[in-house]
Design brief:
Elements: E1 8-14, E2 27-32, H1 38-45, E3 64-69, E4 73-77, H2 88-104, E5 108-116, H3 123-134, E6 139-144, H4 154-165, E7 172-174, H5 183-203
Parallel strand pairs: 2-4, 2-5, 5-6, 6-7
Antiparallel strand pairs: 1-3, 3-4
Bound molecules: guanosine-5'-triphosphate and magnesium ion (MG).
Length: 204
């Protein structure tokens, strides 16, 4: 069943897993290059303009931001990777912190990796995805800013990105925070995903 998001609230910004909320909500985390549209994706899904801070300046999200959705699950906005203007040491520090989160967080059920539909997967995206797969972390791909490409080319871009990064076509979704393209499809996917994740947990 499709998710109906009614109440989304910001809970905390955590520099590392130690400061993450102590709850039993399943968490879905967003990863992607700086400026790809992670925060906009969260705002569009939750029907909120400024829940997650968006910006034209890449590197805006520096902490892991936790949003509680209808006391049912949580969305986690992670810092973007691959932004050249942030010092290497800083980037490595963030990277280390959120890699620990991705690897160790028991509540994490899914990673949504966002990629700019105009550019397709970059080297840093490929590295991220293979790291996720190596660590057995479930992931889907979302091609963002789909309003920027012609409708006729959408399927072509999906197939090309899936192929370039080595995923199946059905692991690739499209989205526009601007026009809300792909929003209903994403909400039904997440609804079903969370329902089946809950079944797995209750069996354990
Ligand atoms: N046209 C269009 N612009 C978008 C879309 N999604 C995001 N943007 C724009 O892209 C810019 C970056 O968006 P953010 O959501 O802040 O990106 P982010 O991935 O959270 O960036 P960091 O926090 O720096 O990692 C903003 O100017 C957004 O308005 C979209 O679907 N379509
Ligand atoms: Mg952001």
């Amino acid at each position: 069943m499709a998710l109906k998001i009614q109440n989304a609230k910001f809970i905390t910004s955590a520099p590392s897993i130690k400061e993450a909320p102590e709850w039993e909500l399943p968490e879905i985390a967003m990863v992607g290059r700086s400026n790809v549209g992670k925060s906009s994706f969260i705002n569009a899904l939750t029907n909120r303009k400024n829940l997650a801070k968006t910006s034209n300046t890449p590197g805006k999200t520096r902490l892991m931001n936790f949003y509680e959705i209808d006391s049912h699950f949580a969305l986690v906005d992670l810092p973007g990777y691959g932004y050249a203007k942030v010092s290497k040491t800083m980037q490595e520090q963030w990277q280390k912190n959120f890699q620990v989160y991705l690897k160790k967080r028991r509540q994490l059920v899914l990673v949504i990796q966002l990629i700019d539909s105009r550019h397709g997967p970059q080297e840093s995206d490929e590295q991220m995805l293979s790291w996720l797969e190596k660590n057995d972390i479930p992931v889907i791909l979302v091609l963002t800013k789909i309003d920027k490409i012609s409708r006729n080319d959408v399927e072509k871009h999906c197939l090309a990105s899936a192929k370039a990064i080595g995923l199946d076509r059905d692991q690739v979704f499209t989205f526009s925070a601007e026009t809300k393209w792909g929003k209903d499809q994403m909400l039904s996917f997440l609804g079903e995903y969370l329902a089946s994740a809950a079944q797995v947990t209750s069996k354990q």
